[in-house]
Amino acid sequence: MAESLLGARPRAAAALVAAFGLLLAIFVPGASATAAPPYETTATLDSVEFASETVTSGSAASLSATWSLPDNPTTPVGVVIPLPPELQGRTDNFPMISDDGETMGHCWVTGTQVYCDIDDAYVEANPVGLHGTVSFRAGVTTEVTETTEKTYDFGDVSATVTVEPQHNTCTVNCEYTGRDYSKWGDYYVGGDDKHYINWGISLKSGPEGALGGQSVTVTDVLQGPQEYIRAEVRATNQVGVSADGTEGPVNWAPLTADQYTGSAVEGVVTVSFTTQEGYFYDVRIFALVTDNGASVDYDNHATIEVEGEQVVEVEGSTQYKGGSATGLGTNIGRFAITKEVTGSGADAAEGITFEGTFEVVTPEGETIPGEFDIAAGETWTSVDYPRNSTVTLTEVTPTAPETVTWADPEFSQESFTVTGGQLTKITLTNQATLREGAFAVAKAFVGDGADLVPEDATFTVDYSYPAGAGYEAGSGTLTLPADGSAVESPKLPMGAEVTLTEVTPEAVEGAEWGEATFSPETVTIGGEETIAITLTNAITVTPTPTATPTPSSTPTASSTPAPTSTPTAASSALPNTGGPDPLPILIVGAALLATGIGVRLFARRA
Questions:
Q1: What pLDDT was estimated at residue 185?
Q2: What value does the CA radius of gyration of the chain take, rounded to a whole number of Å?
Q3: pLDDT value at position 7?
Q4: Exposed, middle or buried: residue 504 (CB in 10 Å: 0-12, 13-18, 19+)?
Q5: Which residues contact 69 (CB under 8 A, 6 or more apart)?
Q6: Nearest to 458 by CA among 427, 492, 483
Q7: Are 474 and 492 within 8 A, CB to CB?
Q8: Is 601 a residue whose pLDDT tops 70?
Q9: Which CATH superfamily, name and number, covers 437-541?
Q10: For 41-77, how does the pLDDT look when each residue is reduced to its tens digit (9 = 90+)?
């Protein structure tokens, strides 16, 4: 029967707690929490779970939620857990404690939600990897007639639990048989968000109540983080049936101030009164919990004296079964490397991937190697490592592109310690110097007019090149002497494709310029060696023209004498007179005549 009475007592105490909390909410200034959502950044609710696989309809269930925040959240920051209609939050508030014991925020439980403020200063000091848990209690109002699996919705997540129907009918040993000396405590959170314990001391009596006229003194000692508020004596002479079917004292009421005396000195509370026959008595000691539930378990003991003699010493304890919250923003840390490229070759390094390695040594001595690769202007971020781990960074000195010379890499911190809850920012700087080269042009001549070129003559060569990786387009002019001395260009960016042209040289008396040629014809600026170029001009002597002779007058031909008539041959032979034969003479004469005519004709043609 004693167990049944103790089982009924929490419900009576709950009524007292509710009434006391209401009074505090009415009469205590600032009795409601000032912080509340919405927040600038609300944590992601990762999970909600019931503490046990089975809950009973009408009872209180314990739940636990996990949450997480993005890195570098904007304040104010908080956690919000909306409660479904069939789970009624048990009014509570409690601090959020970091893993190193620091208070980092505060949580409140209302009938419809759980919310936690996380201190701005803590967020600013620990902006990375913030996550944690919130534990709280809620009444299960789901009504079932048989064991039922139920899923409750918490917004982004849900939780499933088996709900059993209430078992509230007593069938065995239900009659009241009296009570023994005992002590208990009820922990609760008031309407002012403060934590309290209601300590109770029960006096022994039979089923008919106490004997009358007995002097009773109860001495109660508060232990630990408790501060005395007040004491009272409660009594009743009625026995009734509770909700679970058991019999016990009902309709308790406090004694008036003139019916008992009390005092409290440094946590020792003394209460004295005289019994009346047929009454049942409880002594109540109300205490403020000064650590807001951080100790979780709270103890108390009391001595009971009847008629001036110590009868019994009773021990009692209570536990803060409400909520709790933890934040794990300081047990890990990260580091980030931002790449900067400086120098004349910075633009030429665009698109280059820089590679490096690092070594992490944890506080326990474990060595964790790692690698990173990063481009100019970008940031690489590590994974989480235990706080107080040491990190050493190295980078492989780049070699590409060939148009750039790299200085040794420089870390803003080459070795450092991971700070809990923070992002350690590292800058890795590489200085890139654009490599340069030059070309030199010398003048040469070919042709028979080379000697006519004046010794002080100069020749102008224009050069230009288009923009390339890491440099802009450029141009310039070289002035070459005639003696063949080479003239070197200024330093030009490596890789520049140079085009050369010669301005038409001045005219040279007695000579003519021919074609100008460059050897080599194309120039690409290379390394340190100067590229030698020859500009050759062809020049020839201008020929002196000869005078054209005046032709003599053509002589006038004389008239040709008329030929003599050719004698006709006689039909009979001439008489032979003894002179030469006339036929050969005629042939010779004809020949001479023909020759004379031909000479004359030739002379005329000439």
A1: 87
A2: 60
A3: 31
A4: exposed
A5: 41, 43, 44, 77, 118, 130, 131
A6: 483
A7: yes
A8: no
A9: Collagen-binding surface protein Cna, B-type domain (2.60.40.1140)
A10: 999 999 999 988 899 888 888 888 999 999 889 999 9
d(C-alpha 155, C-alpha 180), whole Å: 49
CA angle 485, 491, 492 (to 5 degrees): 115
Write down the pTM of the prediction: 0.46
8 DSSP 8-state letter? H
Q: Which two tokens stand for residue 441?
A: 């042009």
Six-digit token string for 113: 């939600």
> How confident is the model at residue 528, as a pLDDT?
73
Distance of alpha carbon 506 from alpha carbon 177, whole angstroms: 137
- DSSP codes of every residue in 279-331: -EEEEEEEEEETTTTTT-EEEEEEEEEETTEEEEEEEEEEE--S-EEEE-SSS
Whole-number Å distance between alpha carbons of 58 and 407: 74
Query: DSSP label at 266?
Result: T
How many whole angstroms separate alpha carbon 374 and alpha carbon 355? Answer: 7
Look up the CATH number of domain 171-324: 2.60.40.740
Residue ranges, CATH 2.60.40.1140, the chain = 332-434, 437-541
350 Cβ partners below 8 Å, 6+ apart?
376, 469
Strand partners for 254: 234
Say how far residue 127 (Cα) sits from the centre of its chain. Answer: 12
Structure tokens at 292: 């807001």
Cis peptide before 38 (omega within 30 of 0): yes
Collapsing DSSP to helix, strand or coil, 5 comes out as helix
**Cis ω for the linkage preceding 555 (within 30 of 0):** no
Quote the CA–CA distance of 29 and 493 in Å, as a whole number. Answer: 78
The enclosing H or E element of 158 equals strand 158-164
SS3 per residue for 211-226: CCCCEEEEEEEECCCE
Q: Which two tokens stand for residue 178?
A: 């009296």
Taking CB atoms within 8 Å and a gap of at least 24, the contacts of 589-596 are: 593/563
The label of the residue with tokens 């936690």 reads 116
Domain boundaries for CATH 2.60.40.1280 within the chain? 32-164
Q: Which two tokens stand for residue 32?
A: 């409601």
3-state secondary structure 536-601: EEEEEECCCCCCCCCCCCCCCCCCCCCCCCCCCCCCCCCCCCCCCCHHHHHHHHHHHHHHHHHHHH
Q: Return the CATH number of the domain spanning residue range 332-434.
A: 2.60.40.1140
Name the β-bridge partners of 271: 218, 262
162 and 144 Cβ atoms separated by less than 8 Å: no
- Which tops the pLDDT comparison, 244 or 476? 476
Number of Cβ within 10 Å of residue 361's Cβ equals: 16
Please give the backbone phi and psi of residue 201, each rounded to the nearest 5 degrees, phi first: -125, 120
Task: Give pLDDT, residue 329.
Answer: 60
Other Cβ atoms less than 10 A from the Cβ of 467: the count is 11
| SS3 letters across 74-127 | CCCEEEEEECCCCEEECCEEEEEEECCCCEEEEEEECCCEEEEEECHHHHHHCC
Q: Does domain 32-164 have CATH number 3.90.1300.10?
A: no
Q: What is the largest CA-CA distance in the chain?
A: 229
Tell me the pairing of strands 458-465 and 474-481: antiparallel
- DSSP H or E run through 478: strand 474-481
